[in-house]
Amino acid sequence: MYVGGLCSMAITVRICPIISSVSTRAYNLDFFYRNSIQRSTSVAYGPKLRGKVKATVNPYSFSEVAQPEVRKSLNDFFVEAGDFLSTDGGPPRWFSPLECGARAPGSPLLLYVPGIDGTGLGLIRHHRRLGEIFDIWCLHFPVSDRTPSRDIVKLIERTVRYHRFPNWPIYIVGESIGACLALDVAASNPDINLVLILANPVTRLNNFILQPLSGLLEFLPDQVPILIEENFGFKLGYPLATILETILNGADVAQIGRGIFGDFFATSANLSTLIRILPKGTLLWKLHLLKSASASLNSHMYTVKAQTLILLSGRDQWLLNKEDIERLLCTLPKCEVRKFKNNGQFLFLEDGVDLVTIIKFAYFYRRGKTLDYISDYIMPTPFEFKEFEESQKLVTAAISPAFFSTLENGTIVRSLAGIPSEGPVIYVGNHMLLGIELLQLAIHLLKEKNIMLRGLAHPMMFSKTVGSKLPDMQMFDSVRIGGAVPVSSLNFNKLLRSKAHVLLYPGGVREALHRKGEEYKLFWPQHSEFARIASKFGAKIIPFGVVGEDDLCQMVLDYNDQMKIPFIKNFIQEITQDATKLRNGEEGELGNQDLHVPGIIPKIPGRLYVHFGKPIETEGKRNELNDKEKAHDVYLQVKSEVERCMTYLKMQRESDPYRNLFPRFLYFVSHGFSSQIPTFDLYQAFESYGGEDESKTSQRGKVCYEALISLVN
C-alpha cells in the first residue's frame, strides 16, 4: 500500500497525495531551460496599434547582483515533520510536495528514500528547484512503522516497475539507510533504466560500532537527546567552528546570522520534535533495518548496472567507512564520487548544498536511455553564473582581458558587437597553454551577448575509469557547467543542428600542451571536415586569435624535458593510456597526444588579448563545399585568418599603456575594480613621432589603422 495508504496521512497545504499515471506524463526531449532568458513585454505602438513583442533579456548582464533563491529552512523541516507526527501511523507511503508541481514537460520521475529520520522531508530545501526538472515522490515512514527491509524494497520496486517507460530513466535519491535500500532495488532490477544519487551510503556495518551502540540504547530512557546530539551531527562544535572560520575569513556577519545561527537555533528550539521523530524504539529499529538492508544488498551488489553518483560528506562521524566507498567504486560499473569535506551527515539539509547544481556539474541529468549532451543540457542560473564568475574574479582582474571583434564592414571594435547573436556559429582559434583562455571566453560571451559557448572538449573531462590516475572529475566542473561536450563528429553535428555557438580548437591536445618556444605555433591537421559540416547547417565560421601567454608564465619543464625523467615518463604513459586517445591516424607531432602537466613559473601578469575576425559565411554553399578542394580552401582561409589575428594583436599590444600590471592596478585604484581597463588606440596603430602636430598624428594614425584593417581582411 503506497497510494491508498494516504488516507491515514495528515494532508496539509505543504504536501499532496500522488495521482499520476504513465499516460499523463508526456515525453518531450525538446525542453530547454529558457525561463530566465526571454520575457514577454506589452508595448503600445499608438492609439490604433497595440501588440505584444518578445523582448530578449540577458539575465547574465547583471549577474553581480544575482541572489540565490529563497529556500525553506531547517526550521521548516521541523515544522512540517511535526505535522506528520500529529496523526502519524500506518504503513510507509509516497507523497509529492506541492511546490514541486510546476515541472517541465518530459521530466523524469525522482523517488526520494529518506535516511534515518524517515520523514521523507530530507529534500525540503531542494523541492522547488528539483520540481522544475523532476516529478518528485518522497517516501515517508511513520515513527511506529516496523516494515522489514525486504518489504520496503518491494514497495519501491512496485513503484519503479509501474512507472517504467521505454528509454525513460527513473531517479532514486537515497540518504544513508535510504541509499542502501536504493542500491538493493537497483541490484534486484538491473534491466530497469535507473539513475542513483546516494548521499553518505552505508552498505557495510562495523560491528565494533553497531553492537555497543545497540546495547547502549537498550539501557537508555526513551528520550535520548544526548545521543542524538553526539552521534547525528547536531552539536555545538560545528556551528562554533564554522562561525570562527567564517569570521577569520572576513565573511559577511549577516550571512553568518542567517545561515549558521538560524540552523543551530532551529535545531535547539525543535529538539523535542527531533526526539519524537527518533524515539528509542524507532532508533533501535533503524539500526536493525540498516543491518538487514546491508546484508541483503551485499549478497547481490555485483548485479547493479545503474548509473550512480555518490555524495560523500567529510564530517560524517556516524558510520563513515572510507573502505566501503572504495569497494563501491570498484564494484559499481558506472559510479562517480563527489566529496564535500566541510559538510556533515545530513548533507541535503545544510546551507551551501544545491542538489540541482550538483546534478548539473556531474552531467547526471538526462531524459532518455543515455545522456544527450545537447538536449539534456540545462543552462546555469544567473546565481550559478555569478558563483562561476567570482571563482575567476582574481584571475580576470590580474590579466584584464581585452576583447575585439570585426564588424561586417571590416571595422575592428573593442567589444563583441561583431559576433552574431543567432547561431549556428563555429569559433575556430588557437589554443593557449592549458587552455587558460577558455573560461574568459565563456564568461564574456555569456555576460555580454547571452551566448553559451559549447566547447568540444577532451573526453577525459567527462569520464574516468576505476583506478585511473586521471584528475578527479570535480576539477572540470567549470568546464562542464559551461556547456562543454566530448569532442566527436556526432556531438558537433548535433550542436550545429540546434543552432548552438560551438568552440573548436583544431590544434587539440598537442597545441594546448605545446613545448618551449611554441607559444603561437598552430598544430592543425592537414585536412579537416569542419568547413564542409558548417555548410551543411549554414553555420558562420569566426576565426579568432588569442595572445598573452608569454606575458603570463614561463615554461621551464616541457614534455621533452619530462620524458627524460624515468618516473615522470612512466606516469605520463600511464595517464595517456587511461585516457581516450584522439587522432589515432595522425603521424608525427600531430599524433602525439600524450597527457602531461608542463612545468611553468608564473610571471607578473601581463594582459590577455582576444581578437575575433570577420565571420565567414557558408550558408548556401553546401554543394560548393562538398568539393573537398574547395572545402580545404576554406579551411586554409580560416587558418590564415587565425594567424593574422594573432599577428595583429602581437603588433598592437606593443602600444598598450596598460599591458603591464602596475598601470592597471593604478587604474583600478582610481576608477574602481569593476571598471574596464583601456587598451591601445584602435585608430593609432603606431606611436606618433615627436614634434608633429595633432592633426598630422591623427592623419597618420588613420592611415596606419586602414593598413591594419586591410591586413586582417
TrEMBL record:
The keyword Lyase does not apply. GO terms for biological process: triglyceride biosynthetic process. Signal peptide: none annotated. GO terms for molecular function: diacylglycerol O-acyltransferase activity. Pfam families: DAGAT. Keywords: Acyltransferase, Transferase. GO terms for cellular component: membrane. InterPro entries: AB_hydrolase_fold (IPR029058), DAGAT (IPR007130). The keyword Secreted does not apply. Belongs to the diacylglycerol acyltransferase family. This is Serine aminopeptidase S33 domain-containing protein. It comes from Brassica carinata (Ethiopian mustard).
